[in-house]
Design goal:
7 strands; single chain; alpha/beta; seven-stranded parallel beta sheet; 233 residues
């Protein structure tokens, strides 16, 4: 897809992968609707519009979608479902509230956003949905059962929906990043973000690659990892 003049929605836009993706899409000529609970502190661009939205709340998602179409036009070409969080802990002592928070954000929010954009993408017979899963969506991790469960759910959702919408000209690509230097690790005991990890811009570049493929070429899954991770981390 040629992104020049296209409209892209990026959730979780305030920092990390979401912010890096918004910047890269803008550099490619796209208009970006950034959805999040907080606006990015250092992103000012004539083709960037921020819409306050907690993806855990379906009514807020619908309001953000309505406002996006009103301000940026009816056509929506790209959705990057990036908003997410991880909380670590052993299952037998894990907070049920934290379990629900992760599912509400990582799974339910992704569903609400996807459901909102699909009717318009079907009318266009053109669109691309990028879902950010994780390596945790392909393998179990000790003390991360809840997070892994949500990212496995993203994987299953992505694999199912791409078969639903491929004949409508809509692509669905699921990404599985390994360790990336973001704020994700702030609340994960025993691991600190470090420069040996991948950078948010690396993941944004992979997203751009998937988006720029020819119309009849569809990347379903993309797994990525740092080449030389810090030993013991």
């Amino acid at each position: 897809m040629d992104l020049n003049g296209k409209v892209a929605i990026v959730t979780g836009v305030s920092k990390g992968i979401g912010l890096a993706t918004a910047r890269l899409l803008l550099a490619q000529g796209a208009t970006v609707a950034g959805w999040g609970r907080h606006a990015p502190a250092d992103l000012q661009h004539e083709r960037f519009a921020f819409f306050a939205c907690d993806v855990r709340q379906e009514e807020q998602v619908l309001e953000a979608f309505t406002n996006t179409q009103r301000e940026l036009g009816a056509e929506i070409h790209v959705l990057v479902n990036n908003a997410g969080l991880g909380i670590a802990g052993a299952v037998d002592g894990f907070s049920s509230a934290h379990w629900q928070l992760m599912f509400d954000t990582n799974v339910h929010g992704l569903f609400y956003c996807t459901k909102a954009v699909l009717p318009q993408m079907k009318r266009q017979q053109l669109g691309h949905i990028i879902n950010i899963s994780s390596i945790a969506g392909t393998t179990g991790i000790e003390n991360m059962a809840g997070y892994c469960a949500t990212k496995y759910a993203v994987r299953g959702f992505s694999h199912s929906i791409f078969k639903e919408v491929r004949n409508d000209g809509i692509k669905v690509t699921c990404l599985y990043p390994g360790s990336t230097q973001t704020n994700f690790f702030d609340d994960i005991p025993g691991t600190e973000a470090n420069a040996s990890m991948m950078q948010p811009e690396d993941i944004a570049g992979a997203i751009l690659y998937a988006l720029q493929t020819p119309f009849n070429f569809h990347i379903v899954d993309m797994e990525m990892r740092p080449l030389q991770p810090r030993k013991g981390k």
